[in-house]
Protein: Transcriptional regulator, GntR family with aminotransferase domain
Amino acid sequence: MIAPTGAIGATALARHLGSWRPAGPRPGYQALADGLRVLVLDGRVPVGTALPSERTLAEVLGVSRTTVAAAYAALRESGHLLSRQGARSVLSLPVQVPAEPLDLGAEADMIKLNIAAPAAPEQIVHDGFRHALECAPSYLAGTGLYPNGLRALTETIARRYTERGLPTDADQILVTSGAQHALRLVLDTHVCPGDRILLEQPTHHGTILALARHRARAVTVGLHPIYGWDLDQLESVVRLQRPRLIFVIPDFQNPTGLLLDEAGRIRLGEISARHRVPVVVDETMVELGLDVMAPPPLASFAPPGAQIITLGSASKTVWPGLRVGWIRVDGRPDTYALARYESDLGGAVFEQFAAQYALANLEAFLPARRARLREQRAAAMHAIAEHLPGAVPVRGVGGLCIWTALPRPVANATAAAAAELGVRLIPGGSAAAPRQRGGPRLASDVDRTARPLRHAPDHDVSRSTSSDRRTGG
Structure:
């Protein structure tokens, strides 16, 4: 469900649309519908914005009311517009929960750019499990159940926060089975069906799915591809909508790679305190700065009265196969531990020891990982420029993703064409764009990704359920 975030007048909407009219024989209603889709997908007009009436918009645009009515109908059909009798129609994003779980182990020859999952630093992971074997004997006499996490791991995580400028004690950490598990515990604790949650747009697809499963109402604020967060707009939406939570990815945002500066972190903390709304901070990409390192954690800038809930993970930094994440709060994470009891009694001991070893030895492998990611980004940007002269990628300063604006609204068709040629992509509405392969095949893999984009068919996006001009790669 989408909560209305305000309204836009016909004149302002026409100004945002710009030159939307079709140059050829294409129906005008399709061109108008595509133009409106691009506005909501780019974030220039937020999800939840009420559109002007058909008659008013038709008068301002100088078209027939039939054209506007057909465009609105096409948007409703594709899930980009929600209408209720007696109320203005509001812009939406179609959220599609996969009917089946992703079979990540299948299709071995596929280039899986749909999962932000780096390969393991083999030596560190090997040494980590050897460390686990050495530590295990003293734990075998017990139950092996540690609902808050192994003490050695929580101490290592707390030490890293302190090194980054946020004094933290091990008792402030709850270890989870990955960042998605951490997010689920936060939502289980704070959110009831129908609650509003403020999200960045675009954001991590897993977050959208988690909100859908909790039947929460998404309220979005668009990210500018260069300037990032519009915190004036964000606070305005908070003031109007009173969301239950604010969810942000300030460090090398997934999928744009953008970085929130210190002034923005201060402002977010002030918004949390002033409006008494918790801010959930996803830090899964924080160690993957490619051009700059991240500022101190957002929680370190929080004034009295702010509530900052920080989520972290070893998946992007070390290896997703460890399945280790965590929650960091200002006090004790007891409420999240209680929520956890409904599903499990703690994480795997061996994986926690391996993660503890890797996180205690970040400098042994992170410089090489960052260097490799810079090479991958350069190769991808080169391939996009060579094969897609009209595409505009966002050159993020870190992370694992490249968020790209295509010259035509063919993201869904592009993803389908790429899959036929052995490349898995996620269209822009879903927002995740990783790499899972490495080694000498990098350049050819990226080229295999870019070529299908060049030859993607002219797709009638008015008939697609989630087409847009964005894709990840």
